[in-house]
């Protein structure tokens, strides 16, 4: 996966001042190994953090910079770090990198791990120093085989250079880092399910509290951060808070840059590092090049399959959490998908809900039974065999599987696109109700959830 460019992206060179995540990328898409990475100021931030900064100062710097999680939830990273216990006697603690990137239409972390593995390692090294963690794990999606090879080589290079292991940079600080490949479950994107899987248990989310910062891996304090989140840390430490905040566009409440992209039948599908606050229209037209000839934009999702659909008139929304929130959904991973006018929304939603139903851990009843129920209803509507009341039943499921109604956020994310699709494209669902067709024999009305 190479970083692509189109339109203005061809005229704007990537630099350390404007593109902290991607300026080191090679034009040929090959990995940046240790010698080249260090020649491009790699590990300079780590040396600064070890030599010139107290551990608590690193935490405070990340908090002041306003770095938020880049995995989709957007929780403030410095606040999360601040939850780790201050008790120095609790000397066994862990740092986990969530690299289980299984959100459909999302591949940003893959690019970073395959092409800039040392950026992630440096981010984890600085974070480990701040959090006083002596061991780290990169929990990697099992299908990312190339990333696994590149990360393991980079870890060995860092060990040989004294950047991992014992007495790092002569500081007396020890940090071991391991690459752990998962078994391939979407639910492992939830941090406590990831922890269970790492321990060799079934990947079910845990009850919270206690939160991982208190009771995590093998009962010890644990911090879990996303790949892109950790990759932001070196630039923040190296360049400072004011610089980091200056990167975003005016009006954005989120700071820094974000890996954003567009997939679907666009002319130039790809991935770009862009400032928070850029409009979705700029991303769609200037970078993705708009729709291919012969296709028209019907709707789009701003950040993965678990975000709600938006219409073409919503493209002027700014790409940051609050900006996308104003038009009724979430920023998510920031990698958008364009849906063209040839797509039937019922078929698209049936495909999505099949995926989410299959990936449910099955722990709680609303998710375990509600998602397959939605699939059965959508399949019937898709075949033109839906019954009167099926749409109301689907909307009832959207409510019963919404935020706060299930054990984790899997089901709320699964039904968000369903609710928005019915909101904007209800006639396509109504067309699949058998009793609405001329000459059709009305079928028995199903029980409506919440009726």
TrEMBL record:
It catalyses: a quinone + NADH + 5 H(+)(in) = a quinol + NAD(+) + 4 H(+)(out). SUPFAM superfamilies: Nqo1 FMN-binding domain-like (SSF142019), Nqo1 middle domain-like (SSF142984), Nqo1C-terminal domain-like (SSF140490). InterPro entries: NADH-UbQ_OxRdtase_51kDa_CS, NADH-UbQ_OxRdtase_suF, Nuo51_FMN-bd, Nuo51_FMN-bd_sf, Nuop51_4Fe4S-bd, Nuop51_4Fe4S-bd_sf. Keywords: 4Fe-4S, Flavoprotein, FMN, Iron, Iron-sulfur, Metal-binding, NAD, Quinone, Translocase. Residues 346-391 form the NADH-ubiquinone oxidoreductase 51kDa subunit iron-sulphur binding domain. Its EC number is 7.1.1.-. GO terms for molecular function: 4 iron, 4 sulfur cluster binding; FMN binding; metal ion binding; NAD binding; NADH dehydrogenase (ubiquinone) activity; quinone binding. Pfam families: Complex1_51K, NADH_4Fe-4S. Gene3D superfamilies: 3.10.20.600, 6.10.250.1450, NADH-ubiquinone oxidoreductase 51kDa subunit (3.40.50.11540), NADH-ubiquinone oxidoreductase 51kDa subunit, iron-sulphur binding domain (1.20.1440.230). It comes from the Bacteria. Its cofactor is FMN; [4Fe-4S] cluster. Composed of 13 different subunits. Subunits NuoCD, E, F, and G constitute the peripheral sector of the complex. Belongs to the complex I 51 kDa subunit family. NDH-1 shuttles electrons from NADH, via FMN and iron-sulfur (Fe-S) centers, to quinones in the respiratory chain. NCBIfam families: nuoF_fam, PRK11278.1, PRK13596.1. This is NADH-quinone oxidoreductase subunit F.
């Amino acid at each position: 996966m190479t970083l692509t460019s189109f339109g203005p992206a061809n005229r704007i060179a990537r630099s350390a001042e404007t593109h902290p995540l991607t300026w080191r990328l090679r034009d040929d898409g090959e990995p940046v190994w240790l010698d080249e990475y260090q020649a491009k100021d790699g590990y300079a931030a780590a040396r600064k953090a070890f030599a010139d900064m107290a551990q608590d100062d690193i935490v405070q710097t990340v908090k002041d910079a306003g770095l938020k999680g880049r995995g989709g939830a957007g929780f403030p990273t410095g606040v999360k770090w601040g939850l780790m216990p201050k008790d120095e006697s609790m000397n066994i603690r862990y740092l986990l990198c969530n690299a289980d990137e299984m959100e459909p239409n999302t591949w940003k972390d893959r690019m970073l791990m395959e092409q800039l593995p040392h950026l992630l390692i440096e981010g984890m090294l600085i974070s480990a120093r701040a959090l006083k963690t002596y061991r780290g794990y990169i929990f990697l999606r099992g299908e990312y085989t190339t990333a696994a090879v590149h990360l393991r080589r980079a870890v060995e290079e860092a060990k040989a250079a004294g950047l991992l292991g014992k007495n790092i940079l002569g500081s007396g600080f020890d940090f071991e880092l391991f690459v752990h490949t998962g078994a391939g479950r979407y639910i492992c994107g939830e941090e406590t399910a990831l922890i269970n899987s790492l321990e060799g248990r079934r990947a079910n989310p845990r009850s919270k509290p206690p939160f991982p910062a208190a009771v995590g891996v093998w009962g010890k304090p644990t911090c879990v951060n996303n790949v892109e989140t950790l990759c932001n840390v070196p630039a923040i430490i190296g360049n400072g808070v004011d610089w980091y905040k200056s990167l975003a566009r005016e009006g954005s409440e989120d700071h820094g840059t974000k890996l954003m992209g567009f997939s679907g039948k666009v002319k130039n599908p790809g991935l770009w590092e862009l400032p928070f606050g850029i409009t979705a229209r700029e991303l769609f037209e200037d970078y993705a090049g708009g729709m291919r000839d012969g296709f028209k934009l019907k709707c789009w999702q701003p950040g993965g399959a678990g975000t709600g659909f938006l219409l073409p008139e919503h493209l002027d929304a700014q790409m940051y959490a609050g900006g996308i929130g104003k038009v009724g959904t979430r920023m998510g991973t920031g990698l958008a998908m364009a849906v063209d006018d040839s797509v039937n929304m019922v078929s698209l939603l049936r495909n999505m809900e099949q995926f989410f139903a299959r990936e449910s851990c099955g722990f709680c009843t609303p998710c375990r039974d509600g998602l397959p129920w939605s699939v059965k209803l959508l399949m019937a509507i898709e075949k033109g065999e839906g019954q009167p009341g099926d749409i109301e039943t689907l909307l009832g499921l959207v409510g019963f599987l919404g935020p706060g109604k299930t054990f984790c956020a899997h089901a709320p994310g699964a039904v968000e696109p369903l609710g928005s699709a019915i909101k904007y494209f209800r006639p396509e669902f109504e067309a699949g109700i058998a009793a609405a067709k001329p000459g059709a024999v009305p079928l028995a009305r199903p029980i409506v959830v919440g009726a």
